[in-house]
Amino acid sequence: MAGKPARTPRGLLARCHNIADLRAVARRRLPAPMFHYIDGGADDEWTLAHNTRAFEQFELVPRYLRNVEHIDLRTRVLGFDLDMPLYCSPTAMNRLFHHRGEIAVAEAARDAGTLYALSSIASSTIQEVGTASAGPKMFQIYVFRDRSLNDDLLAACREHGFAATCLTVDVPVAGNRERDLRTGMTIPPKLTLKSLFDIALHPAWWLRYLTGPAVTVANVAHRIAEGSASISTVVEYFNNQVDPSVTWEDAARLREEWDGPFAIKGILSVDDAIRSAEIGASAVIVSNHGGRQLEAAPAPIEVLPDIVDAVGDRLEVILEGGVRRGNHVVKALALGATACAFGRPYLYGLASGGRAGVDRVLDLMRAELARSMALTGCTRISELDRSYIRRVQAPLP
Known about the structure:
There is one protein chain. By secondary structure, the chain is α/β, with parallel strands linked by helices. It is 42% helix and 12% strand. The protein has 15 helices and twelve strands. Strands 4-11-10-9-8-7-6-5 form an eight-stranded parallel β-sheet. The chain has a two-stranded antiparallel sheet with strand order 1-12. A two-stranded antiparallel ribbon has the order 2-3. Helix 5 links the parallel strand 5 and strand 6.
């Protein structure tokens, strides 16, 4: 089967055979506030759970007696040639979960031959990630009140090898993440006695946190007066900079300022997908922010077919949300997606074992993808179409 061979995991990681196993390890290794910051969603977390459950609405219809000895997972996404149709989404503040944070994830994505997307709310700078990884890289951005901040970030991307950007549009205001309120994982932190006791039970984590460089929103920290760049001050500055009045005209201007591949992230409606195509986007990322923003939003896999039908001939359509298995990616590809992206799974890996944990996640997903392709009867991504998938007719129990 095509692609890089899986690394041989050792110790605890060797006993992790799927994303759920890595989630369990991450839960044990992280203090509760940090684990639940990764794991939680908005309000009652119905959307968070539904993102993955929704894949159960679809069945794969295989073809047999075909030569599937060699599986080719290679594809092209946003101008990058990737070894598999799954990449690492932008996620915030990775150094809260492991001291190497975004650097470890970027290195793992590079060696897996896939794309790494860096968040605007990252705890590592554009320069640090660009220096650490020569692999395919994309930067996730918002439209800020101070437009010079956008200019500075895009200039840094050009200088340090980020060839694509994605504009996140589904955060006009922050979602109501009640888990974080309960654990005190807010800015500034409001930790409970229970949370402080739990942190005390994880000495490896807090020793790294106390002795390592300060964790902050690295790409905007320089905007704060020297001596006051605490994480709470920087995050407050960042939150105040995200512009809730942003419109499609602002998105169009940002697109004009970036001469490389440009995606709109957070699309759930056909109308917004069409507007994305009209302003010249290279791709739409069908996403509900991992169930962390609007509760009761549809799962990305549910709206994917309609969006593909509306704009799939004009731009790439990427699915992000709920992906936990290789067969989830195959289902999305059969429905017309160009590729998939995920965030929580690699964060579970990062928390479980740093770089080696992220490697384990990407290796497991690559193996599941190749196996699902072979069992479906397809040897290349281009062979998948809707004849290989059907919607479940009877209601699920």
